[in-house]
Amino acid sequence: MAKRIGFVGLGTMGLPMARNLLRAGHRLRAFDLDPARARMLADVGGATASSACDAARGAEVVITMLPASRHVEEAVLGSGGVLEGLEPGATLVDMSTIDPATTRRVEAAVRERGARMLDAPVSGGAIGAERGTLTIMVGGDAEVLDQLRDVLAAMGTNIVHCGPIGLGETVKLANQILGGTAMVAVAEAFAMGIRMGADPRVLLNVISQSTGNCWMLRQAPVPGLTEEAAVNRDFAPGFMVDLMHKDLGLALQAADEHGLPLTLTAVAHQLYGLASRHGYGRLDVSAVARLLEGPGELLWGRPPAPPGRPVRP
Ligand code: NAD
Known about the structure:
Rossmann fold, 3-stranded mixed sheet, 9 strands, 13% strand, elongated, binds nicotinamide-adenine-dinucleotide
């Protein structure tokens, strides 16, 4: 059944997700701090709200898709935020990747208002958002999720209840630990193999049928090795270095609150931070591999930089 939905945050992920909700027949009122993003949704039939509070007013469901914890706190709890307009009985679904402690804090405020909240971070990137094939990891009351399955199904094909509020974020961060460290490990494996003379096609062929096989193997940054690797598009994301840096930082912070050191995650977090310092922050995560190139070295087969110019931007 069509629902009245307020949507806050129409960025790389939010805009295509909102479009898919419209396509599925839901009615949308959306807000983004950047009016140009809101206009892009209006072009395909969404209504524009003047604030997060305005987007929430009269909505059965409010979805937030924002960069980080502080944006969610500001857009929900801040002045002119979602909470001021949220109807008792309505549900806030936060689909951003943020830290689980913030999720629980926001949920307490939402509950106090007589409304409900799910955390529902996603995996699948911008392509999954366009195609409506995201994996959605949901924390919160299972009954509330069942009432909203039709809404989530417009954006994702794999909807998994992970446990009570905050557990969606926890499972998402666990996935990021593996994806983030695996990308670094793939880069190191290929750097060593290539430098010692192995053919990258042989590396891919053997590893993909051995114990080293993993999702990030297909992102090994050797031009033309796989169709989907971001290196073929000059490292256009995909999933950005800066977002991976943020997510691994969240995982470290959350684990630390539980007295749990995450050694590999800490090293990978520093490497993504370093990649960002080198100017690769808005490139695909696989650009972390460029840290392994020596001065003037073309480990990944990129064309040489013009003479007199630095190798890295
Ligand atoms: P983005 O930066 O492209 O978009 C965020 C949008 O939120 C922007 O349009 C910004 O103007 C808006 N915004 C910020 N503060 C606001 C506020 N207070 N009120 C209203 N609008 C506000 O980010 P994104 O890539 O769409 O990512 C969103 C979330 O999804 C992040 O938590 C990210 O980690 C997660 N995620 C991203 C990807 C990806 O591939 N991009 C994949 C999975 C998960």
